[in-house]
Amino acid sequence: MEVFKMEFNVTRDGLTLAGIYEPAPKPNGTIAILMHGFTGNRGYTTTELLPQLAQRLRATGVGTVRFDFNGHGHSDGEFANMTVANEIADAQAILTAVQTRLAPKQINLLGHSQGGVVASMLAGYYPDLIHKLVLMAPAATLKDDAIAGHTRGLVYDPRHIPAQLPMDNGKVLGGFYLRTAQLLPIYETAQNFTGPVCLIHGDADRIVAYQASQRYDDVYQNSTFHLIPGASHRLDGAARTTVLQLATNFISN
């Protein structure tokens, strides 16, 4: 069945962020904003996590908005200029647009990997606007990695970070990303959100240790932590069905 989709582009500081709005066939007044991870995108094929989540959520009456962060996918900007801080600014611009254009009764945030960090911090800044939060393999270890001097295969002196670091995938990571990552108040900001939180992580995650989600679970007042046996960072394979079910049930109930 073809899903009705609507372009949902947002401008933030002169950059156009490429978004898509997929309303539910029988809307219940809730909109979920979905956020992708580091070097990822909003999902352009039906086998990817965010489009699959969107499909499941719409079936329960929840409309979805997903978008490419700056320097990713079809959005403006250079990847080398991306930081967690300006991804939070991206997400804030999307949140404001959802509020003003769609005027939902409730707004939920779902984030995977670095998108989980962004979602957690945005919810901390807007605890009065966000209803529920789903963090899937949230990459809060990006701060520890930056402090230690190793990030996604890159090795560098954490006290003398170069302006740019070439990555294996052909992209260039900006040194400012790492400098700001070292000082991010991730958990301190996240814990300001006191609504319901669903944490999902795989015990076979080789990119982000599941202890990151355990620590979120420790600082949140109203969270549930699901450790998925054998699941990797991508939460794919046999684990995907479980992840989709956990997230959808949590949002729709």
From TrEMBL:
Domain AB hydrolase-1 stretches: 33-139
Descriptive protein name: Esterase
A single cellular component GO annotation: membrane
Annotated InterPro entries: AB_hydrolase_1, AB_hydrolase_fold, AB_hydrolase_sf
Molecular function terms from GO: monoacylglycerol lipase activity
GO BP, one annotated term: acylglycerol catabolic process
A Pfam family per the record: Abhydrolase_1
Organism of origin: Levilactobacillus parabrevis ATCC 53295
